[in-house]
Amino acid sequence: MSTPTDSAPSLRERVRRFLESAGFETAITSLILLNAITLGFETSASALERYGGVLHLIDRAVLVVFVVELLARFYVFRGRFFHEPWRVFDLAIVAIALMPAGAAFSVLRALRVLRLLRLVSLVPSMRGVVSALLAALPGMASIIGLMVLVLYVSAVLATKLFHEVSPEFFGTLGGSLFTLFQVMTVEGWPDIARGVMEKAPHAWIFFVTYLLIATFMVLNLFIAVVVNAMQAQVSEDLKDEGEAQTRLILDEVRALRREIEALRAAQG
After folding, report:
1. Which of 93, 102, 139, 199 is an S-S bond match for 165, by CB 3.0 to 4.6 Å?
2. Does one domain contain both 143 and 251?
3. Do residues 86 and 121 make contact, with C-beta atoms less than 8 angstroms apart?
4. pLDDT at 105
5. To the nearest whole number, what is the mean pLDDT of the chain?
6. Structure pTM?
7. Could you count the other beta carbons within 10 Å of the beta carbon of residue 62?
8. Do 247 and 133 share a domain, yes or no?
9. Lowest-pLDDT range, 22-31, 81-90, 98-107, 166-175?
């Protein structure tokens, strides 16, 4: 016969349940949002002058909570802590916030705003989006190579054609690359094209062809790859959820079968 001490969960198990509880996750999310507000106020000189002490105190208190949380997760998971990429992600963000405030680390200290990215590891829907984007990276590599090739070929061609007509935009290869990258974003390209067409009327052929290839084809390929990756991620999540529900049902059926067999054995 088991004693109450034997049946009681261990301290590590109680800590794990606490860390994975909905209330604790809500509290951490609230702290992250509060920290986001305080970091925003720190960008205002007047707010920093008036409430600087309070803002820094809140920032340090939130950081202490995050450190204690990570230590608790180390205690619960031990070596398995590093098996979960999102826990390593949280560790890296908190480590950046712990960098000393000296001049050599001033840039890293400014990166403590990355602490807000911990929301990604807490919100399942955000984790799914990031996982889908990471899954799409291999497919994006070939598209990026195609885009670089199109951009380089177009820049060389534009430099040879328009370096005398529009030296401010196409005078050098570097300038042409930057200009065509701007055109690819469809930002201010009509002004650039009209300026060139005033001296080279047939330049519209180059710009229209480049836009059709670079913007409407290559960029849409990016969108297609990302959408496919997200659909695959959603399908995988639904499959995992369905398998988890199936395992739960099977466990309940097995438990009922054992109870029935125990009743039959008692009656027999």
Report:
1. 199
2. yes
3. yes
4. 55
5. 80
6. 0.56
7. 19
8. yes
9. 98-107
